[in-house]
Amino acid sequence: MSSDKRVHPKVTEAKELMESGRMSRREFVRTAALLGVAAGTAYAMAGLPRPAFADSHGNMPFPADDPNAKEGGILKVAMQIQKVEDPATFSWVEMGNQARHMMEYLAMTGPDNVTRPMLAEKWEANDDLTEWKFHLRKGVMWHNGEELKAEHVVWNVTRWLDADLAAGGIIGLSTYSAMLEEHDTGEKDDDGEPKMVKKMIPGSVSADGDYTVVFKLKKPVLSVAEDCYNYPTAICHPSFKAPLSDNPIGTGPFTLAELKVGEKCILKRVTKTTDGKDFVYWGGKVYLDEIHYYNFDEDNQLVALAGGDVDAIYEFGVEQMELAKSLPGKVLAAKTAQTLLLRMQVDQPPFDDPKVRAAMTMAVDNARAKALVFPEGGSVGENHHVCEIHPEYFKLPEMKRDVDGAKALLAEAGHKDGLEVTIDVGNTDGPWHQTLCEAVRDQLKDAGIKMNINVMPASKFWEIWDKTPFGAVAWTHRPLGTMVLSLAYRKGVPWNETHFDDPEFEAALDDAEATLDVEERRAKMEKVEKILQDANIMIEPLFRPVYTMTSEAVNGYPAHPTQYHQFNKVWKS
Questions:
Q1: Does residue 552 sit within a domain?
Q2: pLDDT per position as a tens digit, 497-531
Q3: In degrees rounded to 5, what are phi and psi of residue 259?
Q4: Could you tell me if residue 573 is inside a domain?
């Protein structure tokens, strides 16, 4: 809500949709919070009890203090340890987790999929969702003793949209893409066409005084607050220069004490600013003294927990469930839209032939492949990257495996004697990536397609994930299907690893993104999903559940569907 307590008209519209049965109560809570209603108020308006995580104090994004909590101690977590160079170009969740307790966000999306104010204390939008004002909390202290100001946020956003930076996945998010326009560089590309570059539209972001940031968008966007919690959108001090690990100035309760890639990342509480003042953290009480991340691959993390080397782990695979259940501790599960895409680059042979791509998707039964890898939990993918847990998901007709049809298409494409391809796999989330590829390989063989599996070290795969013509690439959970589609399939966005380019798709996605009524948005998503499915740019057998585990001594550990770590209220007994 705005400073004059005006309820945004779309909140009223959403409430009417909820009361008429066209929007679920949980979707109303998420939508109202995006439009600036405090999460607790949104739960009350929906007539829902607030979950434990939502029982926060004031308008804080964190849970309320636990009266039984003990202060002090070190939380040791098993996770892959990666480089921490520039938050704006982070491409993996683990990088974000290493930095998340130092560098914070304007907003925070919790385990309940509801977005709350973080460095901002509130926000408001105009009626058509093209202008948003984020009001910053006063008194937020940087580690160097300065106060966070609106001009610092403007500096960050301007930097993210700098064409020379090409800030990772940020410019693929709907909010930031709505602040860009194409400019002719005066150069020609390899085909002799004008070489275009995206630049920020002047005036798209500005400071209105010391504590208000104004976003002006060229199209309506509902997900602005959610887009402020994507892991590359951490707010850096304007003095920032990469790598972050050399000079980590943030607003969070911790700072980086030691980083050895592939070994450990040590975070310690900030008690003094760099200019010698007492550091006062804006976010209230934090219990832990230190957070230690230690490098363990996913298949060894449970062993580390069992041996007492760590107190918690990033994740374990479904194949380790029986081991997890046999150990003392707490098994935590989250239903997610995390997925593995066996994706093809549409401008690289042989995948530049639509018939080849169609033959490959036609030869695979996604449900059968999913059942071999995740027989329990998760859901079947439909080759369009929208999951059934996304509020706007539209159920398309069931895909049918057609081996004879696949063979016929291959013959038409000039491969009547079969086709041989190689997929690059990094097992970045564990060996289930390879297992899934093997399940797909065995099905493709029936259609005369030989798929070789090139298993690479995760560190090497991270270097080529967006360059390989055929790769098995993990995508993390996003709260909206439209959000992930904007990140991955719009023309020219950095994470468009398939090189997909379809103006009709983008127009349909724009239309869906601007629609508040979930039923209407879902209907519009039929076209969006069908265009992507018919393009046959991916084999997507499944969306997986995520499992993590802690020792009995760890309390308040959140199981987040995106595996984002936010340990402000975690404590050890």
A1: no
A2: 999 999 999 999 989 987 877 788 899 999 999 99
A3: -140, 125
A4: no
To which H or E segment does residue 181 belong? Answer: strand 180-188
Q: At what angle are helices 432-444 and 366-373 packed, to 10 degrees?
A: 140
Domain that holds residue 302: 64-329
Distance CA 389, CA 407 (A): 34
Q: Which residues contact 397 (CB under 8 A, 6 or more apart)?
A: none
**569 located within any domain:** no
pLDDT tens column, 143-153 = 999 999 999 99
pTM of the shown model: 0.77
* Co-location of 161 and 258 in the same domain: yes
CB-based burial label for 7 (10 Å; 0-12, 13-18, 19+): middle
Looking only at the bridges linking them, the beta strands covering 74-78 and 290-294 are parallel
Confidence of residue 3 (pLDDT cuts 50, 70, 90): very low
Cα(296)–Cα(238) distance, integer angstroms? 34
Contact criterion met (CB below 8 Å) for 334 and 546: yes
Round to whole Å and give the CA distance between 167 and 160: 5
In sequence order, the β-bridge partners of residue 425 are: 455, 472
The answer to whether residue 58 is domain-embedded is no
